[in-house]
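Q: Given only this backbone (176 positions), what sequence would you predict?
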């Protein structure tokens, strides 16, 4: 398991078991990553697609790349200092993203990503900010990404931080 600069984010290398037929990778085991999985989603993204930046206040996401390679950006919205991490993930990797950590990914060649979620998606825990907010300073590998309307029209990082702190009972600046 590789540590991230962001507390609670866990990147793991999935061990392949290969033979003449192909490869098997175990992606999750309750005894080693005891999260309460409530829903599983699969996304297929075309080359140049960018999804994010999204975050949740109740839900954790365990993600793994089934096909392809992605660039993932993470921003911790829970603390006074906005810790950021940027990493490339492929079929050998999984990542656990806790509530309050914004995440987004882009793919240059197309990818399929699987999400194991600790909450069923109903829209009440879906938040985000613009992928290109200058305060986040994320170095995306795609210059003209394909975006959803939601991601294109998302608010600022400052608005996201204020919303997180308000919902967590904190003011920006860390004083309760």
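A: Predicted residues:
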């Amino acid at each position: 398991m590789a540590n991230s600069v962001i507390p609670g984010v866990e990147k793991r290398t999935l061990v392949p078991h290969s033979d003449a037929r192909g490869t098997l990778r175990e992606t999750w085991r309750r005894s080693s990553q005891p999260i309460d999985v409530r829903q599983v989603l699969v996304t297929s993204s075309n080359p140049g697609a960018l999804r994010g930046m999204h975050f949740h206040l109740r839900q954790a996401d365990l993600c793994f790349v089934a096909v392809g390679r992605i660039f993932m950006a993470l921003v911790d919205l829970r603390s006074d200092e906005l810790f950021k991490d940027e990493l490339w993930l492929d079929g050998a990797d999984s990542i656990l993203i806790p509530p309050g950590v914004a995440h987004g990914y882009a793919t240059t060649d197309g990818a399929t990503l699987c999400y194991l979620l600790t909450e069923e998606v109903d829209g009440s825990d879906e938040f985000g900010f613009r992928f290109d907010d200058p305060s986040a300073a994320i170095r995306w590998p795609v210059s003209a990404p394909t975006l959803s309307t939601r991601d294109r029209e998302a608010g600022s990082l400052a608005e996201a931080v204020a919303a997180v702190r308000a919902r967590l009972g904190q003011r920006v600046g860390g004083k309760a």
